[in-house]
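Support case: hypoxanthine complex. Customer-provided input:
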Amino acid sequence: MKEIHGGLERAVGKWDELGWPRPEIVVVSGSGLAVDLGTAKHRLPLSEWLPFDVHEVSGHPHETELLLPRPERPVLYQKGRLHSYQGYNAHQTVFAIRLGALLGARVLVMTNAAGGLHPDQNPGDLVLIRDHLNLILLNPLRGELPREWGPRFPDLSRAYDPELRSLARSIGEQQGIDLAEGVYAAVPGPSYETPAEVRMLRTLGADLVGMSTVLEVIAAKQMGMRCLCLSLVTNLGSGVVDEPMDHEDVLKMSRASAGKIERLLTALLADDGLL
Ligand code: HPA
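Agent response - structure generated as follows:
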């Protein structure tokens, strides 16, 4: 915890030293979804901020960009996230979120790749996360955290901000993009689920399964941020269709849907209703 706390203080100091405007919004992109959200005003490898080593996974670049979708609206864009299955602990996984929150950001927008748990879903569908099941069973709020980060027992009853979801849906409508809503089950990974696990997740009330996002949302909510998370259904879950899972297919579907996500997020970041 000391390493993380000190690292965050140094990263905040470095941000200011570089003269980057402090962000209002944090964006984190998921597997193969590091889309282009406009010309970066500044850019640095993520490793420049972190007090620990980053390891790359194929298809997951790690860069921090400072975007200005509107002159008065700086955005910290974390291209490529850290996952607990890579061996990062919960505090390491949420480092960029806490950095954004400490710099004053009030909104967190994230994308991820997910498996659909219902036969009526299709690869390429975009789904707004309405709620989650944290089956990763880690929590970034464990341990002694600085009091100023927020409450010990934060409320998660509106973890996925209803107003932001409604804003995203209306932007989607304008662009002819249909946005469903669903419950995201986060599992530890990195192996994909068995068909029995997929049936279990459906029974538990999940609509999507993935290996990320929930730890970041928990950390963001503690620090008072509003969250909007968008899942791309890259595949149907194991056993929903009778096909083996392949990470390459996940990346391929992510690339194929990048344009749609890029348009939606670009409009969202510039929208009056976001802040
Ligand atoms: N399971 C878990 N994580 C995923 C999947 C999946 O089917 N697809 C993309 N990320």
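The CA atoms of residues 35 and 258 lie 6 Å apart.

Case will auto-close in a few days if no follow-up is received.
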